[in-house]
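Memo to structure team: turn this sequence into structure tokens by end of day. - J.P.
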Amino acid sequence: MNAEFVNDQEDGRNINRVSVEACEFDWLFEGDNVETLITILVKTANPEVLTTKTIKMFIKYMWETHYQKAIIYWIFFPYMIYLVFMTQLCSGTIGTFLDEVHKKAVAEDKGEIYDIDMKVVFEARLYTSVALTVFLMFAKLELTSLIEDGMEYF
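Reply from structure team:
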């Protein structure tokens, strides 16, 4: 819906009017109408289709109410979590863990007993598990898209 106020001064009279453009989208939420419309829009070779006001309003509505939130919550936030855990994992935790393993090996060669710091082991396992879980989530998302779309995926 688009509303604007118009101040029209005809014959010296100051007349205020409201201009309203509305588009009803209820039919889209019945059955698979949204999917059908988006499929038609994606497959059309006519770029002028997206210049009509109704389609622009529809896309703006769908972006603001559905897609933007979905992208933020299901792609952006998981990716940021993945990035943080991978950075932590690669930037020091694995190095520290390998140092502990090396110290244990050196101690065993000398006949000494050395216990690896369990905090380091826990951190390495935690960061690896979270990073792997999020990676697998993204891989599943991409593979599902690839299987559904075939070569059009690329």
